[in-house]
Automatic annotation (TrEMBL):
<feature type="transmembrane region" description="Helical">
    <location>
        <begin position="32"/>
        <end position="58"/>
    </location>
</feature>
<protein>
    <recommendedName>
        <fullName>G-protein coupled receptors family 1 profile domain-containing protein</fullName>
    </recommendedName>
</protein>
<feature type="transmembrane region" description="Helical">
    <location>
        <begin position="163"/>
        <end position="183"/>
    </location>
</feature>
<keyword id="KW-0807">Transducer</keyword>
<feature type="domain" description="G-protein coupled receptors family 1 profile">
    <location>
        <begin position="11"/>
        <end position="337"/>
    </location>
</feature>
<feature type="transmembrane region" description="Helical">
    <location>
        <begin position="70"/>
        <end position="90"/>
    </location>
</feature>
<keyword id="KW-0472">Membrane</keyword>
<feature type="transmembrane region" description="Helical">
    <location>
        <begin position="314"/>
        <end position="340"/>
    </location>
</feature>
<dbReference type="GO" id="GO:0004930">
    <property type="term" value="F:G protein-coupled receptor activity"/>
</dbReference>
<comment type="similarity">
    <text>Belongs to the G-protein coupled receptor 1 family.</text>
</comment>
<keyword id="KW-0675">Receptor</keyword>
<keyword id="KW-0297">G-protein coupled receptor</keyword>
<dbReference type="InterPro" id="IPR052954">
    <property type="entry name" value="GPCR-Ligand_Int"/>
</dbReference>
<feature type="transmembrane region" description="Helical">
    <location>
        <begin position="111"/>
        <end position="128"/>
    </location>
</feature>
<dbReference type="InterPro" id="IPR000276">
    <property type="entry name" value="GPCR_Rhodpsn"/>
</dbReference>
<feature type="transmembrane region" description="Helical">
    <location>
        <begin position="263"/>
        <end position="284"/>
    </location>
</feature>
<keyword id="KW-0812">Transmembrane</keyword>
Amino acid sequence: MTVFGVFGLIGNMTSLYVLPQVKSNRSFHKMLMGLVIIDSAVIIFFVGDVSIVGQFLSSEPYLYRASYPYLIHPFRNMTLTASIFMVVAISAERYKAICHPLKYRPAYTKYIWFVMVTTVCLEIPRFFEFKLISLPDFTITYWTTALMDNETYIQFTSYWDDIITTGLLPFSGLIFFNSSIYLKIRKSFFQKYCFVDKNFINNRNLRGEFESVNPGCQKSRVSEVLAEKVQDVCQNTIPQTKGISKKDQGESRRHFKRRKEKTVVLLISIVLVFVLCHVFRLIVQIYEISLSSQVTEGHYLHCHSQDRYHVPVILRFLLIVSHVFIIINSSVNFILYCLVAKDFRKRFFLMFHCRQPTPKRSSTFS
């Protein structure tokens, strides 16, 4: 876990340096930077809590015990929740850009604020699950509160927070957004669009509009007027194309379309890794729900007095594997950027002066 975490932090820091240099589609890149920052926080909290303190240290340091109830425990869960909803927000932003390009698109800051507010509202109860207590040797440690000892609360939070709000709802959103994007891209292969910067004109809609106004027109006349109207709209929308050959204009539109498709490939790659890593987490949490009666204070003290675990050993193993998957999910985005995003890869290589930049446009983002 620590090895994955160190690699992930290095990759994320590199991504934070490279992403601002990619000039196209600022909103998409800003949201990717937000995901990188949140994923880095996930790595720091999980590696520090689960790996370093939980595995390598013989006892918990004083500072760790003092900060666990009100800092480490709530913020560790908050970063994980924010990472989940950030992936959904990026999918929603791409959905708006690709499926509804003519409609109003909120600024990327609104998506980020939505993620932050939703995360805080969902994770507020985490601040009331543990408390600090004094021990006879004048040291302090953390202990569960009465809220955390309530079996009904444990089942409710496990079912509502872990299974529904950070499981079923985000997964449903990802399925909807990405399936809609896929169908839109697939549909574009069978229809002719006039791509104009970020907008396009549907010839079929224009034909229907003209026929509704001029029902008596012959089909040949409709086609003739339709062609003139499309040409006029395209010329008025992008006057800078005057003097450019039709071949160059067609190449520019194909280039724009390829950029859109490459962005979708990157997004789907991120989503697939996310789903694969988080499905295991949900399976483990469903198993934890069946053991909710074994995580109360009374059961813990009884098992502790007999020097036994208060939960099955297999659960501890599954939790470790689940944490490893979470770290992997937060660490591999840099690899995905390098594999899928040509412009990101080019600028990354330029950091080490591997090759000189070429004047040819090679951006793969939209």
